[in-house]
Amino acid sequence: MAVFVDNMKAKFGRMVMCHMLADSREELDAMADRIGVARRWIQYPGTPKEHYDVSMSARAKAVAAGAVEIDMRDAAQMVAARRKAKQEEVRA
To answer: Where in the chain are the domains?
Structure first.
């Protein structure tokens, strides 16, 4: 189980943001709490796309706290794998 931060650099006002995602919602929320990201900022809760958008300073805190650095392609592959698993779960 792990928390991941990608290398996206999207502008949001004066901030630059990236994605933080995890193997589980519990891990994702625990890291958000640890680095000071409010849980209300969760994106797409309960879906395969579940993540937080975090600033570069929060990203640095997450990495210092053990988050694994990935690129955007890795993040997209993780979401695609989750979506596929969810579809297979629904079919079963």
So the answer is: 3-91
